[in-house]
Amino acid sequence: MIQKILIANRGEIALRIVRACRELGIKTLAVYSEADVQSLHVQLADEAICIGGPKSADSYLRADRIISAAEIADVDAIHPGYGFLSENAKFAEQCESCNIKFIGPKSKSIKLMGDKAIAKETVRKASVQTVPGSDGPVESEAEAVKIARKVGYPVIIKAVAGGGGRGMRIAHNDVSFAKEYHVARNEAEKAFSDGRVYLEKYIERPRHIEFQILADSHGKVLHLGERDCSVQRRHQKLIEESPSPFMTPDLRKKMGKAAVRAAEAAEYENAGTIEFIVDAKGNFYFIEMNTRIQVEHPVTEEVTGIDLIKQQIHIANGLELEFDQKDITFTKHAIECRINAEDPARNFAPSPGTIGLYYSPGGHGVRVDSHVYSGYVIPPYYDSMIGKLICFGATRKMALERAYRALSEYLVRGIKTTIPLHRAIMADPLFIEGKATTAYMEEFLSRTTPELFS
């Protein structure tokens, strides 16, 4: 059984893993960059080792240094969190070859689902519908134009190795396609060292709904319901909730079964997420699988009462899931707001710096996952998220009311944050009515004055 875990990450997810391990009686080793020496997870882990300079390329993306730290500290397993090396099949292979348990799926599953074109073909064989488009990477602009005309404009051009909205462009006709095709390829090459792209029919104004998967090494694959992630800016999620206000019991049943089939087709193990887009009529299409724990996992935890990080560790220990699909119940509604160190009034410009006063909201139905505190210096080298506010209650109305109240008492001084933006969204009639699609944020910002967020 796992006795000691290296946490190959930083920030709130690293702290989240430290807490789960402590409850399980498992020792933790934090690895950190020079910029994160004062980070809370470094202070609270049982041991800590510096693995390099402030930039990710010199620390959190250095698999060799992480493996060396694991061997020096004699750990049994590595938890990669999300981002950085969490979906790097080569890193998972290195862990496996060093007899260190990678707390996540097997490297072959990461590789299979990491190539979006192959992933689509894999789930299609499992009778999971995908968005019409190219069968794989397109080899030339001429070939791409033919496919675009066949599926019909608008189309979306996506990087094969993409993520976070990079290498993703929308074209509405032949003229715009030529430009967007080359921009997407260049973005993909710079971001992922892989310039290959593929095409999909662009579904206008869809919902972005994902299903949480848990799969053990004994063949049991379950879903823990959906999360609605439609509130996004430039393909980056801002707000997530569960259950989706759009969902019906029948649609949940159909999508849940499809998500399980997709995970089974990938021979998946551990926690993962199957992502779909859903049109206004309830037609749903697989878009990708995230082979890791998600940023938004707390909303599922609050709705189901299941600790996903602990389940990841139990599965890594070779244990069978102790519950079946029929045992999964959804007893609450939960909403998560990502709190970023950004200035919404200045086109979301990053706002690194020193936090003066920090006051975290509390009270019944409020959870805050954050690694920051008064006096903490937010470094400029990493993702701008400094915390997550999760509010929950018996109904969506109750969760919304608690979220607005909690955002009103959430104090972060010395930097700009997205707290005022989230508070405005919680009071917006369209969001309150549960009608937000992936077009929501663009429309909301267009009818809202920036001064509201200052």
Structure description:
The longest helix has 19 residues, at 174-192. An eight-stranded antiparallel β-sheet has the order 13-12-9-10-11-14-21-19, with helices on both faces. A five-stranded parallel β-sheet has the order 3-2-1-4-5, sandwiched between helices. The protein contains 15 helices and 22 strands. The chain is an alpha+beta fold and 454 residues long. It folds into three domains: 4-103, Rossmann fold; 132-201, Dna Ligase, domain 1 (2-Layer Sandwich); 207-453, 2-Layer Sandwich (D-amino Acid Aminotransferase, Chain A, domain 1), CATH 3.30.470.
Question: Could you give the topology of this structure?
Answer:
Elements: E1 4-7, H1 11-24, E2 27-33, H2 40-44, E3 47-52, H3 63-73, E4 77-79, H4 89-97, E5 101-102, H5 107-114, H6 116-125, H7 141-151, E6 155-163, E7 166-171, H8 174-192, E8 197-201, E9 207-215, E10 221-233, E11 236-242, H9 249-265, E12 270-278, E13 284-290, H10 297-304, H11 308-316, E14 333-340, E15 342-343, E16 349-350, E17 353-354, E18 358-359, E19 366-370, E20 377-378, E21 385-393, H12 396-409, E22 411-412, H13 419-426, H14 429-432, H15 440-446
Parallel strand pairs: 1-2, 1-4, 2-3, 4-5
Antiparallel strand pairs: 6-7, 6-8, 9-10, 9-12, 10-11, 11-14, 12-13, 14-21, 15-16, 17-20, 18-22, 19-21
Helix pairs in contact: 4-5, 6-9, 7-8, 12-13
